[in-house]
């Protein structure tokens, strides 16, 4: 008898390349549902929070379906959440775009701001400086991933007290500006890049996350 596949909900709040995300997670070995239903999102083995476009618009859409509560409740219960692109950015306290400051989900301290690079958006393939001991990047430490963004987190502010495991923070650089490319923090994992658009390396990363769900 074969083992059942992990169930993943891709959160539908009006933002993100939803169909491509669904297909990518199906290829990674999950049973995938695209929905905004709170009960389904709470019950899933893993929740994926995609996102493209403006920070403020994404947060408005997320709040319309009580998405910030879904994320917070899952994480408080140790249930896995994966954020992608703006779905990564909204995990931080605030985003500042075009002079507008928007409150995020506040799972991590920090500000999403415009990259200090000569050319934005940062669009295309880039290497990453993988955090020591990373599980997410195991086997793809030297690979390139696909980024499309003009804003990022340029300073990691979360302080740990030594009693809990410190988050694993992976960095990248564009135009001489360093920014956070991914974070692994217990049940909350998020990437600034698009793993679903990152070829074999991204597919490997998604399989790694999906395979971790049944043991979570």
Automatic annotation (TrEMBL):
<keyword id="KW-0378">Hydrolase</keyword>
<dbReference type="InterPro" id="IPR017926">
    <property type="entry name" value="GATASE"/>
</dbReference>
<feature type="active site">
    <location>
        <position position="196"/>
    </location>
</feature>
<feature type="active site" description="Nucleophile">
    <location>
        <position position="85"/>
    </location>
</feature>
<keyword id="KW-0028">Amino-acid biosynthesis</keyword>
<dbReference type="Pfam" id="PF00117">
    <property type="entry name" value="GATase"/>
</dbReference>
<keyword id="KW-0963">Cytoplasm</keyword>
<comment type="function">
    <text>IGPS catalyzes the conversion of PRFAR and glutamine to IGP, AICAR and glutamate. The HisH subunit catalyzes the hydrolysis of glutamine to glutamate and ammonia as part of the synthesis of IGP and AICAR. The resulting ammonia molecule is channeled to the active site of HisF.</text>
</comment>
<dbReference type="GO" id="GO:0004359">
    <property type="term" value="F:glutaminase activity"/>
</dbReference>
<keyword id="KW-0315">Glutamine amidotransferase</keyword>
<dbReference type="InterPro" id="IPR010139">
    <property type="entry name" value="Imidazole-glycPsynth_HisH"/>
</dbReference>
<dbReference type="GO" id="GO:0000107">
    <property type="term" value="F:imidazoleglycerol-phosphate synthase activity"/>
</dbReference>
<feature type="domain" description="Glutamine amidotransferase">
    <location>
        <begin position="9"/>
        <end position="207"/>
    </location>
</feature>
<keyword id="KW-0456">Lyase</keyword>
<dbReference type="GO" id="GO:0016829">
    <property type="term" value="F:lyase activity"/>
</dbReference>
<comment type="subunit">
    <text>Heterodimer of HisH and HisF.</text>
</comment>
<dbReference type="InterPro" id="IPR029062">
    <property type="entry name" value="Class_I_gatase-like"/>
</dbReference>
<protein>
    <recommendedName>
        <fullName>Imidazole glycerol phosphate synthase subunit HisH</fullName>
        <ecNumber>4.3.2.10</ecNumber>
        <ecNumber>3.5.1.2</ecNumber>
    </recommendedName>
</protein>
<dbReference type="GO" id="GO:0005737">
    <property type="term" value="C:cytoplasm"/>
</dbReference>
<feature type="active site">
    <location>
        <position position="194"/>
    </location>
</feature>
<comment type="pathway">
    <text>Amino-acid biosynthesis; L-histidine biosynthesis; L-histidine from 5-phospho-alpha-D-ribose 1-diphosphate: step 5/9.</text>
</comment>
<dbReference type="GO" id="GO:0000105">
    <property type="term" value="P:L-histidine biosynthetic process"/>
</dbReference>
<keyword id="KW-0368">Histidine biosynthesis</keyword>
């Amino acid at each position: 008898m074969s083992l059942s596949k992990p169930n993943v909900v891709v959160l539908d709040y009006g933002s993100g390349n939803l169909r491509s995300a669904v297909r990518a997670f199906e290829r990674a070995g999950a049973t995938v549902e695209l929905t905004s239903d709170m009960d389904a999102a709470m019950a899933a083995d893993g929740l994926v929070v995609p996102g493209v476009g403006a920070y403020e618009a994404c947060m408005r859409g997320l709040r319309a379906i009580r998405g910030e509560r879904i994320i917070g409740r899952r994480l408080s219960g140790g249930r896995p959440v994966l954020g992608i692109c703006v779905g990564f950015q909204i995990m931080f306290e605030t985003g500042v775009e075009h002079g507008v400051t928007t409150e995020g989900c506040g799972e991590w301290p920090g500000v999403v701001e415009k990259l200090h690079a000569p050319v934005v958006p940062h669009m295309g393939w880039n290497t990453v400086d993988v955090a020591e001991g990373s599980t997410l990047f195991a086997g793809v430490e030297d690979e390139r991933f696909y980024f499309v963004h003009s804003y990022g987190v340029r300073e990691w502010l979360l302080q740990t007290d030594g009693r809990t495991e410190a988050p694993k923070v992976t960095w990248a650089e564009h135009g001489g500006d360093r920014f956070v490319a991914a974070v692994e923090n217990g049940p909350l994992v998020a990437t600034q890049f698009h793993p679903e658009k990152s070829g074999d390396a991204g597919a490997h990363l998604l399989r790694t996350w999906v395979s971790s769900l049944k043991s979570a």
